[in-house]
Specification:
Helices cover 61% and strands 10% of the residues. The protein has 236 residues and is mainly alpha-helical. The chain has 2 domains: 151 residues, Ribonuclease iii, N-terminal Endonuclease Domain, Chain A; 73 residues, Double Stranded RNA Binding Domain. A hairpin with a 6-residue loop joins strand 1 and strand 2.
Length: 236
Amino acid sequence: MNTESPQQFMERVGLQYSNPALLVRALTHRSYINENPDALEDNERLEYLGDAVLDFIVAAWLYHRFPEMTEGDLTQLRTALVCTERLAEFARRIRLGRAMRLGQGESHSGGRDRNGLLCGGFEALIGSYYLDRGISALEQFLFPFLEEAVQEILMDGHPRDPKSLLQEWTQARGLAQPVYRTVSEIGPDHQKIFIVEVEVESVVSARGSGPSKREASKAAAAAALDKLVTRVNDHR
């Protein structure tokens, strides 16, 4: 895959940065920092910000886009729109992988097309554009992605996300929301596996693993639901 500079990426995608250094940071994976000591910062802080900004923008967009939809269905749609696979697909649409600044090991192992890396890169891009241009410009960039994706999801029948199901289960019983925490990270940067634990008060706890914290938390929620179903069946 031919790589391109941040400037080439910005011109090709049609983004306008008043501070291009933010874009450079958004495109810089931690594996690049490890091999290039002169590089100042990777994109993980911007990824954190972009994740939160995405949740807000998508929630607000869905609220206005589907005024008759229930809270539960809005939650499921939002989850489907910001899941790792969906954000990685958004990244592929703009060929973000070509512009990511990766270490040689990460690049040679296929990192430019790995869902977790592309998802993180897209979130970092969102965070950087929000900081540079504000929410209105970001919405103009993001809304076409959401409109096309939501139509696909509704046509296919949006799936029941295990985290949403677990939250609904706790709400129905007056319990506190599930608490997720990252227990450990295993493996090298280009093949890292995250272990996440979920706990619902003193009722149930379970662990799950995956190539991203998001996927690991979904696996943990699914494991917790399995435990709850088994417990219910055992008491019948």
